[in-house]
Amino acid sequence: MEDDRVINAVTGEIMEANTDIIVAPASSPAEYIKNLAIFNEFVGTCLKKGKHYGSIPGAKGQMLYQSGAEIIGKYFAIGSTQRLVEKTEDFERGFFAYTYESTGIHIPTQMKLGSVQRSCNSFETKYLYAWVPEKWATPEQIARKVDRKENQKYKGSFDLKIMKLPHELAGIINTLMSMAQKRAHTAMVRQVTAASEFFQDEADEAPPGKDGDTSKASNPQRAAINAAIFIMVGQLGRTPEEYKQHVYQTYQVKSMNDLTIDQLQQQSTMLQKAVIDDKAAKESK
């Protein structure tokens, strides 16, 4: 059958598929170890910590930055193409989401090396909220407050964390698209060059602290997401215990500490949508 045939990429010859083919390694163990050592030397010599890679709160390893990915791409002669895979643009709620696919191309041979998809949306915490000085906040902004903290530079004054309005979120569409492209490109470079040996994926989760502790000292990322979640729970008029029982039943867990970072992010996004929808419903009455 035609579906059982494969084409030799070099000669163009049509061949019968052979399920007994064993893929041979591209190099010997010694050569592989040598290449890792060379790449390790390249990272130590050409990439600077804090500029090309670094750590983020809650991460268990080093993250590769866009600037570092560009240098590695040049070192390996890797070009790339970007393709918009999916987008959501809800101007009424201010929800904008973009998913891009980055495909790595080996420039000398034009061979496709691999593709990676990454996304970005306006309901991510760093885009959904803004900090404004409390003394300059309008009554309307105060009504959208989700947090309050003392200004570290000007002692005695406070800043308010407010949720942005739909039209404000619409103003960062280009930023969201650019970030999705950067994430896809960086992940692609890391994957096709086997740089995951040195840098972790942004989706990886740091291991929990002792006995599942999720304090800021042991895992700031989890602590920050949890704090934001329970602020929004209060905005929706629900008690923490009511919300916890809902989560336990949904994910079949016994503690918030049992949730993964992805599950916490999922809950955060759902609550963000609920808060905006609730506010819109109240304003329409």
Topology:
Layout: E1 5-7, E2 14-16, H1 29-46, E3 53-54, E4 63-64, H2 66-75, E5 78-90, E6 95-106, E7 111-121, H3 125-128, E8 129-133, H4 139-143, E9 145-150, E10 158-163, H5 166-170, H6 173-192, H7 220-235, H8 240-251, H9 261-284
Antiparallel strand pairs: 1-2, 3-4, 5-6, 6-7, 8-10, 9-10
Helix pairs in contact: 2-6, 7-9
Number of helices: 9
* Total domain units: 3
What's the average pLDDT?
79
Low-confidence stretches: 203-218
Order of helices and strands: EEHEEHEEEHEHEEHHHHH
Strand order of the largest sheet: 5-6-7
**Secondary structure tally: strands:** 10
Rough outline: elongated
In helices, the fraction of residues equals 40-55%
At CATH level 3, the topology of the largest domain is: Double Stranded RNA Binding Domain
State the end-to-end distance.
Answer: 65 Å
What would CATH call the architecture of the largest domain? Answer: 2-Layer Sandwich
What's the alpha carbon Rg, rounded to whole Å?
24 Å
- Major sheet: size, sense and barrel closure? 3 strands, antiparallel
- Helix-and-strand structural type: alpha+beta
Highest CATH level, the class of the largest domain:
Alpha Beta
Strand content bin: 15-25%
Quick take:
The chain contains nine helices and ten strands.
Short key terms for the protein model shown above:
3-stranded antiparallel sheet; 22% strand; 3 domains; 285 residues; alpha+beta
Folded structure, characterized:
The protein is of the alpha+beta class and 285 residues long. The chain folds into 3 domains: 46-122 and 173-204, Double Stranded RNA Binding Domain (2-Layer Sandwich); 128-171, no CATH class; 207-285, no CATH class. Helix content is 40%, strand content 22%. A 3-stranded antiparallel beta sheet has the order 5-6-7. Helix 2 (66-75) crosses helix 6 (173-192) and helix 7 (220-235) runs parallel beside helix 9. The longest helix is centred in the C-terminal third of the chain and has 24 residues, at 261-284. The chain is elongated.
